[in-house]
Amino acid sequence: MPIHYDLPVWRPPSEANSFILQATFGCSFNRCSFCSMYRTKSFAIRPLAAIQTDLQTVARRDPNIRRVFLADGDALAAPTDHLLAILQALRVAFSRLERVSSYALPANLLKKSVAELAQLREAGLTLLYYGIETGSADLLKRITKGATPATMITGLTKARQAGLKISATVILGLGGQSRWREHIDATAALVNQVELDYLSTLQLMLDPMIYDEFHRKFHEPFQPQDDLALLAEQVRLIEELNPPVPLTFRSNHASNALALAGELPRDREKLLAQLDQALAGAAPLRPEWLRGY
């Protein structure tokens, strides 16, 4: 019997080969003006019995699954005991399980204690995907992120203290033409205060569903950046990043005009050289028709 997903289902690019298990439906916040991922859903925590039924079905078909991603966008909103039961069921179903990951909203990390997060880590949740988006307090209000730089630093520090790995994202172009320096400088300043394992960039792409909402909530005329301006944002970000621990840097998400990969600070000059080539027209950019979320 196949399992049935409540569509749409989203996952990070690096989870392409993972089993996607819906622990929750939708997003409990669901008000970020730049994000349309779960606008067609109401948030709900899936009953444990339904999850266990899915696991039994999948385990019969493929007992050697090694990686699991807990969808939808807000699995950590579930009570800790509920998540611990899911993680226990995963260990029973898949004896070769190596990694369990999920998205994490800023509110998730604030609401759970370090002890709770450490319990989840010990039970098998090892990696969190976290959207920083921007380090600018003003822009965080304009995009209705529901977080401040201070609360994000607090939450990310708690996750790190609990032993969880963190893969964070920032969105190039989020400040438009008028606020891009503020966006990049504040983002670098925030990243430089937290210990991340991975940092990725995306480029702003607005679903027509939320286009008007985004512009209305920005509270001033928003002029989007073109590709060259977005590459200049990337240059400034990489120049200013001085992470407290080395991190893996990527811009290989399908929304990006230029795919980059390296370690910071070790590969800073290599990454900047690649960007210089692209800005000079000596390196091809991904065609717009191939970009997307």
Describe this structure in words.
By secondary structure, this protein is an alpha/beta fold. The chain has one domain (13-284): pyruvate-formate lyase- activating enzyme (Alpha-Beta Horseshoe), CATH 3.80.30. The protein has helices at residues 48-61, 80-93, 106-111, 114-123, 137-142, 149-161, 180-191, 211-218, 227-240, 268-279, and strands at 19-22, 24-25, 44-45, 67-71, 99-104, 125-133, 165-172, 198-203, 247-250, 261-264. The strands form two sheets. Strands 1-4-5-6-7-8-9-10 form an eight-stranded mixed β-sheet. The protein has a two-stranded antiparallel sheet with strand order 2-3. Helix 2 runs parallel beside helix 4. The mean pLDDT is 95.
**What integer value in Å does the Rg equal?**
19 Å
Shape: globular
Under CATH, the homologous superfamily reads: tm_1862 like domain
**CATH arch. level architecture:** Alpha-Beta Horseshoe
Average pLDDT reading: 95
Instruction: Provide the CATH topology.
Output: pyruvate-formate lyase- activating enzyme
Number of helices: 10
